[in-house]
Design a protein that fits this description.
Helices cover 29% and strands 27% of the residues. By secondary structure, the protein is of the alpha/beta class. A seven-stranded mixed sheet has the order 3-2-1-4-5-7-6. Helix 4 links the parallel strand 2 (69-73) and strand 3 (93-98). It is globular.
């Protein structure tokens, strides 16, 4: 039986959405449930949405099924093809699929997007890339456009993704370009796990 102290501590962090505490916060299932909660009651028809990695093919398919018009980019053709397949399976509209990274999108792609989703904010990037990535996301969005995603915090130096990230770096890079609509603990961290925060940010 949990002690009163531990029960009180747990109750101080309300669930991000119903059932969140039973899911793996690093899974696609968790991300899709977060989007469903975040956009509940919102009409996403014709909302131009950029998915900046083929690793988020399921995210692309889910949002396409909600009416979003999807752009996706990835240098890996197999991952790009999977994103296309997910969009098609959800009877969605694919506005563009680019076999290049976010950094390589051409100028005419910039300023055309209403929404960007990214569930590995900063952690998938080497530290030297992060300021440029935040700038690029900001440049892709229309005025008032949104960035919705998950941000993981860890202070362990790693030689591969997910790399070490912290709140200071998030503020200095991402919040340089965005206002906060929502920024809160996504799931209380378990021993040995990274902390995960959910973010809905709006372009300044």
């Amino acid at each position: 039986m949990a002690s009163p102290a531990s029960t009180q501590k747990k109750s101080m962090v309300p669930e991000l959405f119903p059932g969140a505490s039973t899911m793996d916060p690093f899974s696609s299932e968790f991300a899709l449930a977060w989007y469903a909660s975040m956009f509940d009651g919102e009409d996403l028809t014709a909302v131009t949405t950029l998915v900046p990695s083929g690793d988020m093919a399921e995210d692309a398919g889910f949002l396409a099924g909600k009416g979003c018009e999807i752009y996706v980019c990835d240098e890996d053709k197999a991952k790009l093809d999977e994103a296309k397949r997910q969009v098609k399976n959800n009877k969605g509209e694919l506005r563009g699929a680019f076999d290049k990274s976010l950094f390589e999108l051409k100028p005419w792609h910039l300023g055309t997007v209403d929404l960007i989703v990214d569930r590995t904010l900063l952690a998938s990037l080497e530290p030297s890339q992060r300021f440029g990535y935040a700038n690029r996301m900001a440049r892709c969005l229309r005025p008032g456009g949104r960035l919705v995603g998950l941000f993981r915090i860890n202070d362990e130096e790693r030689s591969e993704a997910p790399y070490a990230t912290d709140m200071k770096e998030f503020r200095q890079s991402v919040l340089r370009y965005f206002h906060v609509d929502v920024f809160r603990v996504a799931a209380p961290p378990k021993p040995g796990d990274d902390a995960v925060w959910a973010a809905c940010l709006r372009l300044k």
